[in-house]
């Protein structure tokens, strides 16, 4: 596999090839996922939940994200490395610039931030200075306390329309990738068709340009519960590398997510 860049992912969308991505937090898993042919690895702030056992992602710090990014980087040869900006590390542009620098210097090739059009100036500032940005809409877990729980987003028509507008504005600001989390599958499809940058869905239906799963969910080892939108690929294969290869091929063939994994 050749080295994967933001340009490769854009080309995949243009050619109608599905993008498979997964989270990782250390060198060993990152190396195995890279060798299995995964297109991007996210060092997610989900590590607060799956590694640290916290109730949500809010306690995660930029130092912890930088540490795990360094670990992942050492295991990766070809895969694109995306690192999450944790809670309140991009509340304003200056904070975002200095904190994103830490993740890029730790080995990331792109940073991810949760939020809509309020992020536009921050995104432009980062991209102009050489830091690619992945945006994230829908159920943005850092806002769990505003949502009043981990709930499917964009269910009413106004909210759905707003999300499509936000996606267009994020693209215009310079975002090169967009994660869509826990939204109805027809909204996932509408957003993916409304913008030219690739969309990566998790609980966003099968019509997004790619999929992402938290590795613990994909392997059935989450310490909390198994989300509706995930599938245990290890159960079908009994081998971690084969599980990830199966995930990639099921996404490529359009078999994952299935009807049982989507929100209507
Ligand atoms: O933190 C994370 O793992 C994420 C993905 C679920 C998209 O943000
Ligand atoms: Na995250």
TrEMBL record:
GO cellular component entries: cytoplasm
Coiled-coil spans in chain: none
Entry superkingdom: Bacteria
Note on how the cofactor is bound: Binds 1 Mg(2+) ion per subunit.
Keyword terms, alphabetized: Cytoplasm, Magnesium, Metal-binding, Methyltransferase, Pantothenate biosynthesis, Transferase
Pathway: Cofactor biosynthesis; (R)-pantothenate biosynthesis; (R)-pantoate from 3-methyl-2-oxobutanoate: step 1/2
Any one Gene Ontology BP term: pantothenate biosynthetic process
A Pfam family of this chain: Pantoate_transf
Signal peptide feature range: none
Protein name, UniProt field: 3-methyl-2-oxobutanoate hydroxymethyltransferase
């Amino acid at each position: 596999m050749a080295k994967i860049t933001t340009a490769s992912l854009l080309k995949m969308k243009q050619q109608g090839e599905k993008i498979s991505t997964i989270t990782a937090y250390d060198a060993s898993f990152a190396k195995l996922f890279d060798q299995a042919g995964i297109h991007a690895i996210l060092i997610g702030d989900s590590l607060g939940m799956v590694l640290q056992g916290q109730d949500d992602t809010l306690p995660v710090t930029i130092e912890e994200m930088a540490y795990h990014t360094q670990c992942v980087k050492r295991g990766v040869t070809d895969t694109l490395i995306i690192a999450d900006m944790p809670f309140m590390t991009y509340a304003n542009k200056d904070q975002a610039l200095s904190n994103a620098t830490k993740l890029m210097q730790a080995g990331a090739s792109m940073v991810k931030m949760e939020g809509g059009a309020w992020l536009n100036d921050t995104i432009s500032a980062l991209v102009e200075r050489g830091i690619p940005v992945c945006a994230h809409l829908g159920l943005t877990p850092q806002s769990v306390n505003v949502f009043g729980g981990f709930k499917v987003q964009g269910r009413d028509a106004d909210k759905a329309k707003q999300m499509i507008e936000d996606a267009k504005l994020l693209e215009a600001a310079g975002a090169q990738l967009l994660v869509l989390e826990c939204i109805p599958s027809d909204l996932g499809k509408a957003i993916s068709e409304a913008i030219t940058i690739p969309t990566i869905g998790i609980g966003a239906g099968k019509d997004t340009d790619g999929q992402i799963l938290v590795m613990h969910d994909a392997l059935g080892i989450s310490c909390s519960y198994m989300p509706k939108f995930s599938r245990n690929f290890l159960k079908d294969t009994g081998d971690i590398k084969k599980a990830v290869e199966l995930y990639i091929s099921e996404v490529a063939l359009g078999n994952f997510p299935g009807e049982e994994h989507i929100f209507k």
